Amino acid sequence: MKKSLLTLFVPIYIEILFFMMAGMVDTLMLSTIGDQAVGAVGTANTYISMFILMFSIVSTGMMAVMTQNIGAGKNGIACQAKNIGVIFNLTIGIPISIVLFFFCRKLLVSIGISATLENSAAIYMKIVGSACFLNALIPIFSGYLRAFGYTKYPLYATIAGNLVNLVLNSIFLFHFHWGITGVAVATVISKVINLAIVFVFSKILIKSKDFPERSSTKLILLQIFKIGFPSALETLIYNISITMAIRFLNQMDGEGFNVAARAYTVQISNFSFAVGAALAQANGILTGWRIGRGEFEECKKGIRKALVFGIIVSSILGCAIAVFAPHFVKGLSSNPEMVKIVTRLLWIDIILEFGRVTNLIYGTALKTSGDAIFPVVLAVIFMFICTVFGTWFLGIFNKLLVTGCYIALACDECFRAVGMVLRWKTDKWQEKRIVSN
């Protein structure tokens, strides 16, 4: 595969931006209803994500298996891994969709959601959650295309989905006045469009029948789980820690102010976060190909290049966002206190992103190599100490509220980043290779 880091990074970065723009559009349009609507959808999405993470068991492990096999010249096994991923994710995706449809309100009540947000969050969660099986399939086909170097086509799918989401949001909110229901329906339809496009392109661009290599289905599934399960566990721990942090945020006020402030901050800071996420994916693809070919020194050079680029770009973006934050936030909320708090959080986010971009790049490279256990160990230690205990200690005990939460989050990302770098430097990841020439 003759692809450079930049060639892979640019389409993935733009794709992530457009994907996140869907959330930005929802937030912007929901802000016309009020801050409580923003807080309700933000809270609902957090808990929907907890269920969706189960799909990452396959999608994360599948990427490592596919890229290493492609690097080793075994494209047929990569195609086989995709088919296994589709079957597995559908098997768990449909039951999860049913659970979220029938038990959404009970789930929200169980985590102590604010009474003012409960009804709106339940409506959104019921509609979007019941279609989360779409989230089970989109990353499979998108990852399949990326693994073979076709990073532009998932971008096209995301752009198309976002345009549909924007148009339908406008119609459902401002013409039919459906409120949160309209936003939820538009989100589901946009995901259907996204899935249809990546499915069609994967069939057109990758002819699996041209690649005769096959392996034991059981062996491939075990390889996928070897990497995917620890990776999903790390994501689960992250979501649990964020859930507990949000629970503390809900306890800070009865109107959902601190939850809404976090929701606004997350949406705005996504522009900076996308840099690390895209670089991690692009470098992960290159790392998988190189490990498949046994080019370990190239892996080391590549990850250093990705890190330097990521820190420079995310830092510049983070500073620019913080400087212009008051103007951004005024477009989302007319509350002067909300503008002040979110601006402060975005300045803290610069440090957070410095740690996160390092975390993402090195963590993804470790998982792609097959070294997926170590990131889980770091997650257990620092997410609960920093994110959970830190949010309570700084936010509630010391009364820093959502500001304390963001300081805790920044500490978590930075401490784990140091651990990831040190682990990579031991070269133990070279022993975790899952394919041979």
Principal-axis shape: globular
Number of strands: 0
Q: SS-based structural class?
A: mainly alpha
Termini Cα gap: 16 Å
How does this model look, in words?
There is one protein chain. Helix 2 runs parallel beside helix 10 (257-293), helix 9 (217-252) packs parallel to helix 14 and helix 11 runs antiparallel to helix 13. This protein has helices spanning 5-30, 35-52, 56-71, 75-110, 115-130, 133-147, 152-175, 180-205, 217-252, 257-293, 296-323, 325-330, 336-369, 373-397, 402-425. It has 15 helices and no strands. It is mainly α and 437 residues long. The mean pLDDT is 89. The longest helix is centred in the middle third of the chain and has 37 residues, at 257-293.
Characteristics:
437 residues; mainly alpha; 15 helices; 84% helix; 0% strand; globular
Write the layout of secondary structure elements.
Layout: H1 5-30, H2 35-52, H3 56-71, H4 75-110, H5 115-130, H6 133-147, H7 152-175, H8 180-205, H9 217-252, H10 257-293, H11 296-323, H12 325-330, H13 336-369, H14 373-397, H15 402-425
Short description:
The chain has about 425 residues and is mostly helical. The chain is about 85% helix and about 0% strand.
